[in-house]
Amino acid sequence: MLMSRIFRFALGLYSRDVTTHSENTAARISFVAGVFSLLLVIVSFVFSSSSTFVFAAVLGGVAVGFGVSGLIHRTSLLANKYANHPNVRSLGYKKSCAGIALGMMGVGVGIYFY
């Protein structure tokens, strides 16, 4: 499998598994920021720190913003670059939605308990 990817890459026959791996980085940033926001909320509850709730809310807002940006970027990729590909699950839809959900939880809990 690896040799066939290298061979296709060397010939210029870029396949989906080579090009779309890092195509939607906004979705990945959103998911990571959402996870860190949720971790900050947990740390805030454990150590009873109200200032950490503010950081969790801000990081949650960043996660929501990048998640929406990832969804917008995904729709533009599907309209232009990957319009005819039958399998486009790896373009960040699930990570963007998970990042938005985790970010909303971080924002909500952070603002409520601050």
Can you tell me about this structure?
The protein has helices at residues 2-11, 16-19, 25-47, 50-79, 93-113. It starts with a helix and ends with a helix. The chain has five helices and no strands. Mean pLDDT is 77; it is low at 14-19. The protein has 114 residues and is mainly alpha-helical.
What is the element layout, followed by pairings?
Elements: H1 2-11, H2 16-19, H3 25-47, H4 50-79, H5 93-113
Helix pairs in contact: 3-4, 3-5, 4-5
Mean pLDDT: 77
Strand content: under 5%
Number of strands: 0
Based on helices, strands and strand pairing, what is the structural class? mainly alpha
- Assembly type: single chain
Measured distance between first and last alpha carbons: 51 Å
Uncertain stretches: 14-19
Q: What is the N-to-C succession of helices and strands?
A: HHHHH
- Principal-axis shape equals elongated
Summarize the structure.
The chain is mainly α and 114 residues long. It has helices at 2-11, 16-19, 25-47, 50-79, 93-113.
